[in-house]
Amino acid sequence: MRITGLFVSLAVAIYLWFDAPKHGKDKWLWAILGVLFSTIVLGIYLIKTERKGLGWTILILTILFY
Fold first, then answer.
1. Structural domain containing residue 23
2. Whose CA is closest to 34, among 55, 61, 14, 4?
3. 16-54 in b/e burial notation, b at 16+ Cβ within 10 A?
4. Contact 16/27 with Cβ under 8 angstroms?
5. SS3 of residue 20 by DSSP
6. Vertex 19, ends 31 and 54: CA angle to 5°?
7. How many structural domains are present in the chain?
8. Tens-binned pLDDT, residue by residue, of the chain (66 aa)
9. Of 10, 28, 34, 62, whose Cβ has the fewest other Cβ atoms within 10 Å?
10. Is the Cβ–Cβ distance between 50 and 22 less than 8 Å?
């Protein structure tokens, strides 16, 4: 289970690394936060980049899962 979490965190960080500059965000900050906090940060990032529906869904499901 821990390896799965590591892969999810890395996938989130890679996504944030490439997507953040497209929205004028700092790629280093979001990638580091993605590694540390994974899907919670992904949900917050999506909310901040005007993809609120998907962002809130991910954030709520992450909170319920934990």
1. 2-65
2. 14
3. bbebbeeeeeeeeebbebbbeebbbbbbbbbbebeeeee
4. yes
5. helix
6. 95
7. 1
8. 588 889 999 999 999 999 999 999 999 999 999 999 999 999 999 999 999 999 999 999 999 998
9. 28
10. no
AA identity, residue 66: Y
3-class state of residue 21 by DSSP:
helix
Task: Evaluate if pTM is beyond 0.85.
Answer: yes
Q: Read off the tokens for 15.
A: 């996504």
Look up residue 47 and give its two tokens: 């909310």
- Count Cβ atoms within 10 A of the Cβ of residue 1 and give its class: 0-12 exposed, 13-18 middle, 19 or more buried: exposed
